[in-house]
Amino acid sequence: MSTRSIFKVATVLLSAVASPVVGQLTTACNPLNATCPADPALGTTHTFYFNATPPTGTFNTTAGTVGYNFDTGAAFTINKKGESPTLISNFYFFFGRTEVHLKAAPGTGVISSIVWSSDVLDEVDWEFMGGNTTHVSTNYFGKGVPDFHNAQYHPVNGGVQADYHNYTCVWTKDQLEWYIDSQHTRTLLAKDANNTLYYPQTPMKLSLGIWAGGDPDQPKGTIEWAGGITDYAEPYTMYVKSALVQDYSTGKEYSYGDNSGTWESIKIASGNSTAVENINREPEKSLSEKWNDLPSSTKNGVYAAAGGVGAIAFIALVVFGLRQRRRGKQEAALAAQRQEQERVELERFKREGRDPDALAFDGTEYKGAMATAAYAVPDSPPGSSAGPPEKAWDPTGPGAATAAMPLLRDDAMSQRVGGPAPSSVGPQRNNSFPSPIHTQSPGQSPQIPAPTPISPVNRTFSPSNASMRMGSPGPQAGGYGSPRINSPTSPRPGYGR
After folding, report:
1. Less crowded by CB within 10 Å, the N or C end of the chain?
2. Catalytic site residue 123?
């Protein structure tokens, strides 16, 4: 088996037991094993200020959310289990320099980190343990192979959590250097990394993030390295104000010429990188900025249109106000008129000596029933020869026992019961029609049998039967089916013209 094959097998075996510090890094395509797409190059030097969202297309956010503040910069916060918010660059740099101004997060087992990583899992680290407020760890890995003897711890003046510090790395094909606030801290020579085999030497991307190495689900060795179990009872936040990234190479993209994973295999495509275009793209303008950019003629047109709309609105408002004012005047005049009428009426009451509050309603009140009122035939209409109406019959009055009950009509077809028929009225009948009514020729006197005395009866009158004759069948029972004798249109017997 070749040395290269043995190296690949060892890499797989060691990755299976690797620390989660390495396990946090992944690659979509590893050029040690396959032909992979080219990596977009930064190709320039740029400082990213995190008081606002970085330029579109330059960084991706993973495993949580990152907040941005003008004073404190980017905030990476763990609020609960499973969160590890991270910013990962979309660009790569091939040898270069980074300067990150960072304030580490507190919390046992909480790891704040600055990480470089490549597609073949070369790695350069700054790591801050939340339980260690005074020191920072520097480390590196080659080809994803963990070597935990590579870590070193360095004191930080003033502590890592109290304030921001500048953490810088300078990287060439020959050596890698670490600086804290411009003070040189560590140097790694390429030849000292297993004769350059494990020396980081392939295009890198930048990651800024926070994660819980002390999570209870992590392996025991990782929890011990992180400083202990993480308690999620409170949030933990790392802050980053800015990050300068300098790419020592210039070009559009980087690709691997073979599966060796060495710097000599890297090919650089010429041209402008996507990162440079994204960085140099003008930010989205505000409304005020867009307005200022408009030509004067366009602004004048907008002003004129706005003025026209305003004039129309003003005219409509004036018309509406005038109409409302006119309506108000009319209503006020009507109210004044009513008030004046009331005043005149009160003055009249005072002159007449009347108290307006003592006035009572003197009209006729409608009674819904007529059960207690004696029925009386209305007065004859004006010009009638019938004369005044007779006095109403009272069945409870004096002489009621011998008095005859009044009839509804007093004409030739009505007979007074219990008394002689007046000679001027004509034939009489009782209410039960004891004998048939005979017709006679004109000029003949009717032959009427002698009346039979009838005892008084207690009869009541219902308004519903007011249109029917007493004692005769109504129209519902077949009455009035034949022409009436002596209809009102012909002369009645007993009445002279």
Report:
1. C
2. yes
